[in-house]
Amino acid sequence: MAESTNGRMEKLVSLCKRRGFIFQSSEIYGGINGFWDYGPLGVELKRNIKNAWWEDVVRKRDDMVGLDCAIIMNPKVWEASGHVAGFTDPLADCKKCKARFRADKIFSVTARDGENVLLQAGVEADDEAHARAAATAAANSKTRRRLEQHAEAMVWEVCRGDRLPDGVAARCPLCGGELTDARKFNMMFKTFVGAMEDSSAVAYLRPETAQGIFANYSNVLDTSRLKLPFGIAQIGKAFRNEINPRNYTFRSREFEQMEIEFFCRPDEADKWYEYWRDARFQWYVGLGLRSDRLRLRDHEPDELAHYANACADIEYEFPFGICELEGVANRTDFDLTQHQKFSGKDMAYFDDESKERFLPYVIEPSGGVDRAALALLCEAYCEDEAPDEKGNPQPRTLMKLHPRIAPIKAAVFPLVKKDGMPAIARKIYEDLRGAGLSAFYDEKGAVGRRYRRQDEAGTPFCITVDGQTLQDRTVTVRDRDTLRQERIADDEVLPYVRERVG
Ligand code: ATP
């Protein structure tokens, strides 16, 4: 199982590089762990996801406004929010080989029949070579087999791996050495503001966009004349010095979030929590994530953060495991209470009708743009067969991206570079672009090759101008997924594509 799923992931990673979706950051210098760049197709995909989110949660609603805050804020924000004291992961080092692990991600491989064997495998081992080394080092063949399976998974991360049973001391999965006690590691990136590099100049790159919303809550309320319930939405970069970034872009050190803080009366918080949990789930379904790979998981009471009284994760079954795409939480009045306390500013809401003053409760749907993009890419990756020019079936790779988020909506080809075909094709291409639809013009090489390039880019429609176009002004439209071709009038192309892109 592990091999085929990781094989699938490797193929996707390679396609993303080959076609310009995602590159390793500063690759020419050997890269930098946990940072990624989006190429020409990737940036369009990401922008389309963000635009879809903004359209759906801000522009189409009359109870939501947007915000765009600075990445660096007064460090008191992070004291009030609890990040300075508590935004930590447990970190353990091997005393022998000095490898570093996230202590809560070291998990055990136990023989199911209750036999003796108990080996620890570090899910967060730094790379595939280390993970495989752990597997090979395992003592007996039965354990080795089990460990090898896990080693495959380790390459990508087991998101909800087993925890070590109580009383079992973890040992280094690489060399078997003793591990240090876990110590807290704060994941906020520190920097200095101004010329002095002393403690008075310390500031942080925000680890989430949410606190900027809370810090501006009164500004927004005073300037927009909103009444409860209402929400404030923000898309922006967040930074976390993750101990082990992994699983491609899934766990990065720099990423983008799409967050909503939805303020409501405390007695309506349960209702709004359920509303947002279901609405956010459906949003991903609407963008093409198949419902059986997508799931909604309510947190157990002992999983809840101290500030939340309800939380659900929208999870997706990635090739490397079932992992969180977005969390929806009822954060009560925790954040406004904290900021009121630390800033000394009154954050109470005055209800004109009931004449009550109170701190609103907050429902927070918090998702990651990069994780949404990765899930959509994983979902879209397909291999099938398509006939070549002679009608013989050939393997093809295609990205079945939903037309709404596909980087290129339509590609336009003249069948050959003569008889006026390029001029007609160019006109169609210009009309599409003029209407704000991203389009691609290609006249080079065999048409079959041009189709296949667009299949890999996830372009839903290819329009070809051919000999018949010269006679009756019709063109063929080829559907990426079904391979069905239909003829439509050349002046019908724009409405045809626009209608399907939505
Ligand atoms: P995880 O448990 O996976 O570390 P989290 O529960 O800490 O995630 P939140 O703090 O709730 O995540 O952040 C909200 C969203 O931001 C997540 O659902 C995810 O989509 C995104 N996100 C968080 N950390 C990262 C990261 N390191 N890389 C990419 N996206 C991230």
Overview of this structure, please?
The protein has a 7-stranded mixed beta sheet. Strands 22-21-23-24-25 form a 5-stranded mixed beta sheet, sandwiched between helices. The protein is globular. Helix 2 crosses helix 11. The protein has 502 residues and is of the alpha+beta class. The chain contains 15 helices and 25 strands. Adenosine-5'-triphosphate binds at residues 208, 240, 242, 251-252, 255, 257, 324-327, 366-368, 370-371.
What descriptive keywords fit this protein?
502 residues, alpha+beta, 7-stranded mixed beta sheet, 5-stranded mixed beta sheet, 15 helices, 33% helix
Topology summary:
Layout: H1 2-19, E1 22-24, E2 36-38, H2 40-59, E3 64-66, H3 76-81, H4 83-86, E4 88-93, E5 100-102, E6 106-110, E7 118-122, H5 128-137, H6 141-156, E8 183-186, E9 190-192, E10 202-204, H7 210-215, H8 217-224, E11 230-239, E12 254-264, H9 269-286, E13 294-298, E14 310-318, E15 321-330, H10 334-343, E16 349-351, E17 356-358, E18 361-368, H11 369-380, E19 381-387, E20 393-399, E21 410-414, H12 421-434, E22 439-441, H13 447-457, E23 461-465, H14 467-472, E24 474-479, E25 485-489, H15 493-501
Parallel strand pairs: 3-11, 21-22, 21-23
Antiparallel strand pairs: 1-2, 4-5, 4-8, 6-7, 9-10, 11-12, 12-18, 13-14, 14-15, 15-18, 16-17, 19-20, 23-24, 24-25
Helix pairs in contact: 2-11, 5-6
The site of adenosine-5'-triphosphate (ATP) has 16 residues, from strand 12, strand 15, strand 18 and helix 11.
